[in-house]
Amino acid sequence: MREIQASDVIEAVAGMCMKANTELPADVRNKFEQAMAEEDSPAAKEVLRQLLENADISNDTKLPLCQDCGLAVFYVEVGEDVKVTGPGLREAINEGVRKGYGDGYLRKSACDPFTRKNTGDATPAVIHFDVVPGDSLRIAYMAKGGGSENMSRVTMLAPAQGWEGIKKFIVNRVAEAGPNPCPPTVIGVGIGGTFDHSAKIAKRALLRKLDDTHPDPKIADMEKELEQELNKLGIGPMGLGGKTTVLGVKMAVEPCHIASLPVAINVQCHSQRHEEVEL
Amino acid sequence: MAEYKLEMPLTDDAVDKLRAGDVVFLSGTIYTARDAAHKKLFELLDEDKDLPFDLNGAAIYYVGPSPAPPGRPIGSAGPTTSYRMDTYAPRLHALGLKATIGKGKRNDEVKTAMQEHTGVYFGATGGAGALLSNSIEAAQVIAFEELGPEAIRALKVKDFPLLVINDAHGGELYAKPVLDT
What we know:
Chain A is of the alpha/beta class.
């Protein structure tokens, strides 16, 4: 059994929180530049120009890209032959969040749902654990903003509604959300599993790079089709009109019950902030 | 579309001439408030108590900034989504509030209130909090400190870059989504 020090996990998590919130990933920056070249509208171009300038300022000053530094979400793959010493993995991750959000001057946005009292240290993080073969530990972090999360939905379609029903649900949701989730957005779509699982895989799909291609060519085509349909909506950057309503669509598909067709859409703002580390 | 430099507090005349799509660079003192602060402001109003700032001619910025690092007046400070404050905005406009600043759609009640009381809704670029922070010269918590990022702050802004989304004449800038029906 391989042992990993809790302190190593804490440092790695704190580092990811600070990096993701201040350094716009290259794939997102490339998409902004590409979109700026394709847009005709001066308002759309100006929004994209501001977002690129914002990324430069954030990189130089270490001010977060967005004041909403998100709820801290983690997807963790724990090897069967690895053990984290000390207080355990969950507490080490939460301690890393406390440290990263504290030292990085990031906004702590976790609160009690009823009293709305802020927990004060950005914890508890939302953590999804998977057990995998081997002795490594992979931790993926996502800073999930509230404005885009609020525009997300899960639905249980009838199997007969199929791909057409799925497309209609996604397109209508993005249309209804309009300018609210900070477009151009990234759309995570989870299809299959159960009610809860579809949402989990929709969010996990947002960890993919914007310029990657789904390994299943049929799903890759569906992603492209949805992306084209969504960009025909004309919502554009910050809802001011334009060709770029979404930067990408990332789908995850898993088997479901013979009676069900669960579909989840997890909307992510243009500030597509995530990091991964392997220990 | 016109471009204006405006100073706080805002007058009816200044707001009346604005049209959806105009660019405004705003200077002076504006006040931050989002969900939790609005709830507390309404508790004060319901108890006939004074508000922590004068609503007449005022602008409320829907923002919960990130903490100020050493050497800066404030952290990142971009807009939050405005519809969550739709339930509060009409009464505040009736009491003298001239402008709100945020991102995203407003409901019909807010749009009507802006027409009745000569108000304006400005959009700032969401997710550009580091950039917008450069237009904020000073920040001071003036009420509800216990709310942390949601406390009410007086912000001294200089040429804060805004777009008129909804004007006092029923005009709206946001694009209507094109749906095949």
